[in-house]
């Protein structure tokens, strides 16, 4: 028995999970309709796919949500998992699901996939016959991903860095790398049966003044960790920065560097897609302004030629949106994208040259670490501050990188901590901002920059 099979047996023999019939699951995936695979949809689409977030605790409510999305002509369905499942607390998820069903009140903030099980969930997934993307935020997603793939969910978001540093305070990062290595192996294994399973990294990170070089380096590392295990379809992503030009520059450089590093490890046969997240910071409470922000984000997604856009709703500032509000946001976004055909290619040579140089400097430092595997190199780089995510709550993150917005709302690095970027690149960053000698004024400016879209 292989080490992976032993680990798999331990993980899937869980009292709160379905009993896994792997022969039946493999047969199901082998014969699954191509329409369930977003990798297939990407391959045969020349438009930006539209995907919201969304998850309700009960099967009936989740089914009704999908029905509303289908009426809005959705491209990709979401399945957002509840917080208890994210933390592997399946006992609480089961209890809260029972209360939700008995009282017809949502006691969970998402769909408890492990509790429902793959046999039940698969009926819903195959009924709608549209690609479904798993959104979850889980450091240890092994049982969750086994359940998702068996259910017919063939896009898996997340990774050991992007689902840890923004969300967790002290979950061990080395364990997260090993748990996600398991996920990559399972996704790669199932990819040989039909169309490839698509993996997607979570680009927004903390969604708080994260400079593009850090976002992109983390995207590249999670992509490489996935590709080295045999995954053939991967989506890198990033979120709206607050500057249209910085988003365009980021997309151009991310596309270029992703292809470069995939080829560098001999994975030029992998398909790399770009995903754009609408604004992930604080939303305005004025719903008309929220509509304007969502439309602006959609225009940017068209400008950067995103393969997929993750949409928000006008109720973002007020909590979980209604089904109807979520579906309306999908319909509005699809309409805006339809109107925006034929936009020109835009670039900024100086900004792109600087960003690319920053990325290559950080990547070189990571790859030159003395550790024997890529995940250990990445782990050491985070531990040593070579990768440093602003406003991360995790104890391993240095939080020494300080950023601020310039006059055009671009995010600029004003304190680089241990980021191994050149003095030339750092001077380029600093040259775009005029800093006050008054530290309190600088701090107040940073606070304002965090909530730049709030109103």
Keywords summarizing the entry:
two-stranded antiparallel sheet, globular, 18 helices, about 50% helix, about 450 residues, TIM Barrel, 10 strands, alpha/beta, single chain, eight-stranded parallel beta sheet
Number of domain modules: 1
Number of helical regions: 18
Architecture per CATH nomenclature, i.e. the level-2 architecture: Alpha-Beta Barrel
Low-confidence stretches: none
CATH level-3 fold name = TIM Barrel
The profile of the biggest β sheet is: 8 strands, parallel
Structural class comes to alpha/beta
Rg, nearest Å = 21 Å
- Give the terminus-to-terminus CA distance: 59 Å
* CATH class designation: Alpha Beta
Give the overall shape.
globular
Give the proportion of residues in helices: 40-55%
Order of helices and strands: HHHEHEHHHHEHEHEHEHEHEHHHEEHH
Beta strand %: 5-15%
Annotation, overall tally of beta strands:
10
Fourth-level CATH superfamily: Methylmalonyl-CoA mutase
Order of strands, main sheet, comes to 1-8-7-6-5-4-3-2
What's the rounded overall pLDDT mean? 97
Description:
By secondary structure, this protein is of the alpha/beta class. The chain has a single domain (3-339), classed as Methylmalonyl-CoA mutase (TIM Barrel). Helices cover 49% and strands 9% of the residues. It contains 18 helices and ten strands. The chain has helices at 3-12, 22-31, 38-43, 59-71, 83-86, 90-103, 113-116, 118-128, 142-151, 173-191, 212-227, 244-264, 287-303, 323-339, 349-367, 374-383, 423-430, 439-450, and strands spanning 49-51, 77-80, 132-135, 155-157, 198-200, 233-239, 271-277, 308-310, 402-405, 411-415. The strands form two sheets. Strands 1-8-7-6-5-4-3-2 form an eight-stranded parallel beta sheet. Strands 9-10 form a two-stranded antiparallel sheet. The longest helix is centred in the middle third of the chain and has 21 residues, at 244-264.
């Amino acid at each position: 028995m292989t080490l992976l099979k032993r680990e798999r047996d331990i993980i899937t023999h869980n009292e709160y999970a379905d009993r896994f019939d792997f022969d039946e699951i493999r047969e199901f995936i082998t014969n699954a309709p191509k329409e369930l695979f977003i990798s297939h949809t990407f391959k045969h689409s020349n438009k930006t796919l539209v995907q919201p977030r969304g998850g309700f605790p009960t099967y009936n409510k989740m089914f009704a949500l999908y029905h509303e999305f289908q009426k809005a002509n959705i491209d990709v369905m979401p399945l957002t998992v509840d917080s208890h499942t994210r933390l592997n607390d399946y006992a609480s998820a089961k209890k809260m699901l029972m209360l939700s069903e008995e009282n017809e009140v949502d006691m969970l903030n998402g769909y408890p996939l492990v509790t429902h099980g793959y046999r039940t969930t698969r009926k819903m997934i195959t009924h709608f016959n549209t690609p479904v993307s798993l959104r979850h935020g889980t450091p240890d997603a092994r049982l969750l991903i086994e359940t998702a793939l068996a259910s017919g969910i063939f896009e898996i978001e997340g990774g050991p860095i992007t689902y840890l540093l923004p969300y967790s305070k002290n979950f061990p990062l080395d364990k997260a790398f090993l748990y996600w290595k398991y996920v990559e192996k399972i996704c790669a294994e199932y990819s040989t049966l039909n169309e490839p399973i698509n993996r997607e990294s979570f680009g927004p990170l903390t969604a708080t003044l994260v400079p593009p070089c850090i976002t992109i380096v983390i995207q590249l590392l999670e992509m490489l960790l996935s590709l080295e295990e045999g995954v053939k379809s991967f989506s890198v992503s990033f979120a709206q920065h607050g500057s249209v030009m910085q988003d365009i520059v980021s997309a151009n450089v991310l596309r270029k560097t992703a292809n470069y590093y995939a080829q560098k490890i001999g994975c030029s046969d992998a398909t790399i897609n770009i995903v754009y997240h609408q604004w992930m910071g604080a939303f305005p409470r004025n719903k008309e302004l929220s509509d304007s922000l969502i439309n602006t984000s959609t225009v940017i997604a068209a400008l950067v030629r995103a393969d997929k856009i993750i949409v928000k709703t006008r109720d973002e500032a007020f909590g979980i949106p209604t089904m109807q509000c979520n579906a309306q946001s999908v319909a509005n976004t699809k309409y805006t994208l339809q109107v925006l055909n034929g936009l020109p290619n835009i670039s900024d040579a100086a900004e792109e040259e600087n960003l690319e140089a920053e990325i290559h400097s950080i990547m070189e430092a990571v790859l030159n670490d003395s550790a024997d595997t890529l995940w250990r190199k990445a782990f050491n780089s985070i531990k040593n501050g070579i990768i440093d995510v602003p406003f991360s709550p995790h104890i391993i993150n240095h939080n020494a990188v300080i950023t601020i917005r310039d006059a055009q709302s671009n995010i600029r690095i004003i304190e680089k901590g241990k980021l191994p970027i050149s003095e030339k690149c750092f001077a380029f960053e600093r040259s775009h901002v005029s800093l006050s000698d008054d530290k309190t004024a600088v701090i107040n400016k940073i606070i304002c920059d965090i909530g730049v879209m709030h109103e």
